[in-house]
Write a structure and sequence with these properties.
The protein is of the alpha/beta class. Helix content is 35%, strand content 18%. Helix 1 links the parallel strand 3 and strand 4. The longest helix is centred in the last third of the chain and has 21 residues.
């Protein structure tokens, strides 16, 4: 990633006090009575979960994937968001009706930051969340394509300058598949800081440093909660993840309070494993994990 500094970003509307999910999420009604909540990554979109959602729905699951708060809004709005706003977008599914009315268990899964939010749902809703699948969970930006400039970020978090620095996404964009990567590159390579036209499909080309600060705060909160999370957990990560190394999954595996846990490595993908070369394998592993938990509940 390259670093961009800008004072020229156009100011947009003021953020609301509450931060519900943005329009444009995914909902697929299933027939097996179980619900899966899918959570996309920071600066991403529900589109990156679309293949997994369709695969789970074909197996009978109802699937909800909200567009996280302020995703799809101008970058000036998104960069002012808090991690709590993103969590509320997922949490409201559990509290406002979409998570109700299912005779079977509720499962949660998320990609990157979405995996961390999924774990928080399991922590808060201990009696309702039957299992969690963490896909490329990101606690540390320590992948082989992470920028050297990340080491000064803790200093940047303490100053107002964090509102004017952005990381520009560069190849491989978390994607090993060359066809998909080329498609993303056509947009990202020419995108200006103000461009959000294709963010709903490809995510944002620029990553505000303010959101990295929010990730830092989210990670600090979650790591304290890990020993208190006891839901069965699955961790799937690419060995060559360009954004977050397998140390991320291993840290969660070693520190979470779950008795039932598994860690799966992929060998032909980068960070966005829900859309990359092994997306079908990911879908199969997630469904098998949830199915086993559901069978155990029914037999119990």
């Amino acid at each position: 990633m390259s670093v961009v500094f800008s004072l020229r970003l156009k100011k947009s509307r003021i953020l609301p006090d509450a931060a519900p999910a943005e329009p444009g999420g995914i909902f697929m009604k299933g027939g097996n009575g179980s619900l899966v909540i899918l959570i996309h990554g920071m600066t991403g979109s529900p589109n990156e979960m679309k293949s997994l959602a369709a695969s789970l729905n074909r197996k009978g699951y109802s699937v909800v994937c909200p567009r996280l708060a302020n995703h799809g809004q101008p970058l000036d709005v998104l960069k002012k968001s808090r991690w709590q706003d993103f969590y509320e977008s997922a949490r409201c599914i559990m509290t406002e009706g979409e998570g109700e009315g299912h005779s079977g268990p509720v499962f949660v899964s998320g990609l990157s930051m979405g995996a961390l939010l999924a774990l928080l749902l399991a922590d808060e809703f201990k009696e309702r969340v039957a299992g969690v699948s963490c896909l490329a969970p990101t606690l540390f930006y320590d992948g082989w394509n992470s920028p050297d400039s990340k080491f000064w970020l803790p200093l940047g978090y303490k100053t107002f300058l964090k509102y004017f620095f952005y990381f520009k996404e560069e190849p491989p964009y978390g994607i090993k598949n060359e066809v998909i990567r080329d498609r993303i590159h056509k947009y990202y390579n020419e995108a200006r800081l103000e461009d959000t036209e294709n963010a709903a499909q490809y995510g944002y080309p620029y990553f505000p440093v303010t959101l990295l600060h929010q990730m830092h705060l989210l990670v600090g909160h979650l790591t304290k909660r890990l020993p208190h999370i006891h839901a069965p957990v699955q961790l799937i990560q690419a060995k060559d993840d360009d954004t977050a190394s397998i140390k991320n999954s291993k840290y969660i595996y070693d520190n979470i309070g779950s008795e039932i846990k598994e860690m799966i490595l992929l060998y032909d993908s980068y960070h966005v494993i829900t859309a990359d070369q092994e997306r079908d394998t990911v879908a199969q592993k997630v469904e098998s994990f949830f199915s086993a938990i559901g069978a155990g509940i029914n037999n119990g």
